[in-house]
Amino acid sequence: MRIKHLLCLLPVLLIAFSLTACTGGTTSDNMSGTTTDNSAQQTSAPRELRVLSFGGAYDETLTKHLAAFEAENNCKVTFVNATGADILVKVNNGECDLIFSDPVLSFQGEAKGLFAPINATTVPNVANLYKRGILSDCTVIHDVGAYGIAYNPDLVKTPPTSWNDLWDPQYAGKVAIRVLKSDTIELMVWAAKQAGGDEKNIDPGFAAMAKLAPNINTFVTDHPAMLQLFQEGSIAMSTWTDGRVAWAQEQGANVKLAIPKEGGFCLVTSMNAVKNSSNLDLAYKYIDMELGVEAQADIGNDLRYFPMNKDAYAKLSDDTKSKMGFTPDNIEQAQMADWGYIATVKDQWSERWEKEVVAKAKK
Questions:
Q1: What is the DSSP letter of 45?
Q2: Where is the signal peptide, in residue numbers (predicted)?
Q3: Tens digits of per-residue pLDDT, 297-325?
Q4: Is residue 17 part of a domain?
Q5: How many domains does the chain have?
Q6: Do residues 120 and 172 both lie within one domain?
Q7: pLDDT for res 27
Q8: Could you give the CA distance from residue 134 to residue 307 in angstroms, rounded to a whole number?
Q9: Count of CB atoms within 10 A of residue 161's CB?
Q10: Exposure letters 213-252 (e unless 16+ CB within 10 A, then b)
């Protein structure tokens, strides 16, 4: 009887064995106890990739491609927001895996050994960037805005044509500039050069900014604050980017942009991968995704920042292109200060800025 039962079970066992063999890519190897990479990825917990960024509308655009990226790489992207010196504090404390920042902080972080190399081997889309898009061995440019003079046409009857117009006495108390960030530094360096100085001889620049102080209404810390000043009619003009002026117009603000005859300054968004991150491989993949055509076109169409991937410009709408200060024809000639040097003196400049410029504006 026992033999009879075993013979009856034999076909069933053979079928089961056959099914197991056909599905070998998704089950454990009975002899070795190992599983395929595909099975391991599906069963392992998603890794968290911490991306330090700016928040607000910028992060809203960054989220557009996250679902596909997270699914493909079995990870969860978390945004960490910080500004100014807090960015490098968070990097140093291991609170993020990669950052969106500005050149000063990128170069300061490089000097401290905080960032990993970025090149076409680790991030293939680096090969598709404009030459201007590679700042150093560890820093690439994600996008660029064109800084010009934003103005309220009700208060400025003749559109500004030069950076010198910010110093016009008729706008006393009616000018806003940002705190000592990239555009303000660029303006000070430009002013220094008009008086025979430069980044390494910045005294004429500080003197010029001190003369601008009576015109300054507010030192603005963020874009929503600048928007509010224009909506309230509190200021006549400011330094601001093409993309943010377009955004402000969409919010109903009465503001236009003029690119001075001397040329626009660059608002640079840089990217770095944190060297000591346990997720460096994911950080490289994320940077590569953000430098790809689709993500770059989104940053252009949504925020009007010029994309640094050479193939992305063709995917921008005609309306977007019409509101950008930079084009493929002029991006390589865009004005950009010596950020590598400025990073080494930024702290000293910040101290002088408070004493020599901010203090006079408050009187």
A1: P
A2: 1-21
A3: 999 999 899 999 999 999 999 999 998 98
A4: no
A5: 2
A6: no
A7: 36
A8: 13
A9: 13
A10: bebbbbbbeebeebbebbeeeebbbbbbbbbbbbbbeeee
Contact yes or no for 91/109 (Cβ under 8 A): yes
Note the pTM of the prediction, 2 decimals.
0.77
d(C-alpha 13, C-alpha 10), whole Å: 5
- Residue at 105 is within a domain: yes
Q: Going by C-beta distance under 8 Å and a sequence separation of 6 or more, which residues neighbour residue 306?
A: 143, 144, 145, 146, 300, 313, 324, 325, 326, 327, 331
Helix, strand, coil shares, percent, the chain, to 5: 50, 20, 30
Shared domain check, 219 and 89: no
Are 167 and 249 part of one and the same domain? Answer: yes
CATH code of residue 118: 3.40.190.10
For 145-191, the pLDDT digits (tens) are 999 999 999 999 999 999 999 999 999 999 999 999 889 999 999 99
Total count of residues recorded for the chain: 363
